Amino acid sequence: MSPTALLVLRNGQAAPLREVPDLPPAAFREAVLEGVRDGRRLACLCAESDRRLIAVLADDGAGTLHVARTRLDEPRYPSLTPDCPQAHLFERELAEQFGIVPEGHPWFKPVRSHRPWNGAADPWDRPADLPPAVMDFYRVAGDEVHEVAVGPVHAGVIEPGHFRFQCHGETVFHLEIALGYQHRGIERALVGGPHPLTFKMAETAAGDTTIAHAWAHCRVLEGLSGVQVPARADRVRGVALELERMANHVGDLGALSGDVGFLPTAAFCGRIRGDWLNLSAEGCGSRLGRDWLRPGGLRQDLDPLRAERMLPRVGRSWLETRDAVELLWGAASVMIRFDAAGRLDPVQAREIGLVGVAARACGIDRDVRRDHPFGPYGAHPVKVALAQSGNVHSRAWVRWEELAASTAFLSAALEDLAGSPGDPKPDPLPPLAPERLCVALTEGWRGEVLHLGITDTAGRFARYKLVDPSFHNWFGLALALRGEQVSDFPLCNKSFNLSYCGHDL
Amino acid sequence: MPGPLVFPAHVALHLLVALLLPPLVPGLIAKVKARMAGRTGPPVLQLYHDLAKLARKEAVFSRTTTWVFLAGPVATVAAGLVASLLVPFGHTPAPVAFEGDAVLFAYLFGLARFLTILSALDTGSSFEGMGAAREAAFSALAEPALFLGFAALAKATASLSLTPMLLSQGLAAGRLTGPLILVLAAWAIVYLAENSRIPVDDPNTHLELTMIHEVMVLDHSGRPLALVLYGASLKLVVLGALLIDPLLPATGRGWLDWLVFLGGLGLLAVAVGLVESATARFRMTKVPQFLVAGVLASAFAFLLLLV
C-alpha cells in the first residue's frame, strides 16, 4: 500500500467524504505505519460513531495532510502504539470515547473519566460516577523507593491534575500524569452543530489559546462552506494570534524565573504580560481575544486608526520585554538552573510526536506557520526559532526568539493595516456543504492546534475533533522528568506549561 | 557597665526586643524585595497582622497527627526565646551568660529542628517527609560551620560564652581580622540556610516539591501556624544578632548601643532582601556544596588561630 493512495489535502482545504479512501483495517494500519516510517507525523487519530477510524498524517516537508478512513467490523483492532508511539494517547482516547479496544496497547488506561458516548461497553468496566485519575498507577517496588502524589489540588492557583512520582530519594524514576478533571465534553457537544454555542465552545477549548482554537475552528467552517476570507481579515487574525503568543511567552518566561526564585524578571514579566494582554483588549475588547474572530472574517475589524494607535505600544512593550528577559540570560545562577533541568531526548521527542515550543527546543524543526502556511503566514513568513538541547533553557530560549519574531510580524502587520482601508463586517456564512471533511491546523503559542470537522448529509457536524498541543506534549513532560530531581519538577512543568483543559476538552 | 541603662532595664529591653521586634524583620526583607522588583509590596508590619489574624483562627488537625504535631511549633518558639536570652543584642551583654552557653545556644535550635522534623513526619504526608529529609541533611552540614566558628572565636577569646566571644574588643583588629571575616562568611551561609532563604530555600514559593522548610509546616494552621511564623522571625533576629554583633562598633553608651544594634539588624534584613533579589535559588543538589563552603571557611579560620 503506497501512501499516495491516501487523500492529500492542504491545511484548511475541504474535500467530499467519498474521496477519502476507505481502507480495510489492515491496509489502514499499514498506511499509517508506513506514513510514520516515511517521516510523517500522526497529527490526529480518532473514531467516529459507527466504528470508523480516521487518521490524519502531516507531511511537514511537503505541507500536505494525508487522510484515510477505515471501518472496523468489531469494536477492536490491533493497536498501532507498539509500532507507532505517537498513537499512544489517541488510541486510549478513542477507546474511552467509543469503546473501541486497541488490542495489545502497552499502556491501556483511561484518558479522562467518562464512559463511551455511543453506549458501547466501557473497556475498563468503570462505574458511571467514577472520579478522574482513579486507576492503577505504575509503581516501582523496593525498600528505598517512595511514592509522591501531587494534586489534583495544588498550592498555586492552577488547573487540577494528578502527578504520581516514583522516587528514589530525590531522584525521579518515573512520573505518571493523570488528567481528566477539566473534562467538559466539548467534542460530544459539538456533534450536530454548528449551533449558537459552537464557536464559544471551540474558542474556549483551552482558555489561554483562544485565538489559535477560534482560528482553526473558523477555518474548518470556512473550508466546509467554501468561503474565502479577505486578506485584511487574515492579517488581523495573524495580529491576534501573535499577540496571544507574546502575552503567554512573556508570562511563561516570568514564571520560569519565579520558579527558580529569580525575582526581577518574574516581577517585570508579570506586569509586561498585562501590557500585551491589553493590546489584545485594544484590538477586540477582550484581553484574552475572546470573540475577536468570526467564521468568515472578524467580529470587529482592526480599523486603521486603532492599528496606528497600537503600533507604538507594541514597540514600547517589546523594549520593556527585552530588558526584563535579558536579565535572565545575564544571571549565572538562573542559567545553571535552566541548563541542568528537564532534558528531553530528541529521538524520543520525535517518536512521541512532540509539537510546538517543546519540539523546537529539541531541535525538531516544525512550525505550522511555515510548514502548512495559513492566513497571512504564506505571504508574511515568521522566522522559526530552534534550540538544540531539549532542556529548560532551550524551551525558554525558543520562547525568547519567538518573541522577537512575533514582534517583527506585529510591527509590519500593524503598519500595513494602519495604511490600508478597513473592511466591512463579513457576511453570515452560507450553510455547510454536506458529507465533507476539513482539517485545519494553526500554530498556537504552545504548538499545533488541529480541528477536524466532518459533516453529515444535512450539513451538520457528524464529528468534530480538536487536538490541543498539550495532548501531544504531556507525555513529553513525563519523559523529561526521568532521572531528574523531584525538586526540579515545577521548573520542568512550567517550561512545558501545558494546558489541562486543552487536554481534557 | 557603662551607660545610663542599669541591669534590669537592659534585660527588660532585651526581652521586649526579643518578643516584639522579630515580625518586623521578614516584613522588611519582603519590602526590600518588592522595591527591588518595582512593586509596592505588602506593608512592613504585615506579619503582625497575619499573626493577629491567625491567633483568632481555629486550627485544623489531621486525624493522623498526635501531640507530636504540636510539639514542633511550640519547641520552635520556646527554644528561640531561650536562645535569645543567651545572645547579646549589640554591645549590651546577654541577660544570661555562663561558660559553655554557646553549646546550649546551638543545640536549642537543634532541639527545635528535631521536633519540627518529628511533627512533619507525624502528618504522614509524603511532601512533609521529603522536606524533613532535606532539612535533616542540610542542617547536618550547617551545624559544623556554626560550631567551627564557635571554636575559632573561643580560641581567640579564651571563652565559650557568647557574650565575651562576640563582644571582645579587638576582635576586628590585628591578626584576628582574617579569621573573623572567614567565620562571619561561614555564618552568613548558615544564616541563609537556617532561615530558609534564597539561594538555599525559597520562603515565598508555592511549589511543594521544591520546598525545604516551608513544606514541613504545610499542615499547620491557626495558632500553631502563628507560632511557626513567629518562631521563624525570632530565628532571623537571634541568629542575626550572632552575625552582626562582632561587626558593631561599641559606642560606650547604652542607648546608642541599642540603636546601633537595631540599625545593624535593619541593614542585615536589607542585605538578605538584596541577595534574594539578585540571585536565583540553587539547584537542590548544589545546596550541600554551598554549605560545605561554609564549613571550610570556618574550619580554616580555626586553623589560622591554631598556628
Task: List strands and helices in order, with pairings.
The complex is a heterodimer of chains A (505) and B (307).
Chain A: E1 7-9, E2 14-16, E3 22-23, H1 25-37, E4 41-48, E5 52-59, E6 64-71, E7 76-78, H2 88-98, E8 101-103, E9 145-150, E10 162-168, E11 171-178, H3 186-190, H4 198-203, H5 210-225, H6 231-259, H7 263-284, E12 293-294, E13 297-298, H8 304-330, H9 332-340, H10 346-351, H11 356-360, H12 368-371, H13 392-418, E14 436-443, E15 448-455, E16 461-467, H14 469-480, H15 489-496, H16 500-504
Parallel strand pairs in A: 3-6, 7-8
Antiparallel strand pairs in A: 1-6, 2-14, 4-5, 5-6, 9-10, 10-11, 12-13, 14-15, 15-16
Chain B: H1 7-20, H2 24-36, H3 46-56, H4 68-86, H5 101-122, H6 126-157, H7 162-167, H8 177-194, H9 222-244, H10 254-278, H11 287-306
Helix pairs in contact in B: 2-10, 3-9, 4-5, 4-9, 5-6, 6-8, 6-11, 8-9, 8-11, 9-10
> In angstroms, what is the radius of gyration of chain A?
22 Å
Structural class category of chain B: mainly alpha
- Estimate the mean pLDDT confidence of chain A: 91
Tally of alpha and pi helices of chain B: 11
The total beta strand count of chain B reads 0
Helix content of chain B: 55-70%
Helix percent band of chain A: 40-55%
Task: Give the overall form of chain A.
Answer: globular
**N- to C-terminal distance of chain A:** 35 Å
Which class of the largest domain in chain A in CATH terms?
Mainly Alpha
**What is the straight-line distance between the termini of chain B?**
34 Å
Average pLDDT for all residues of chain B: 90
Beta-strand percentage range of chain A: 15-25%
pLDDT < 50 stretches of chain B? 1-6
CATH architecture of the largest domain in chain A: Orthogonal Bundle
- Give the strand tally of chain A: 16
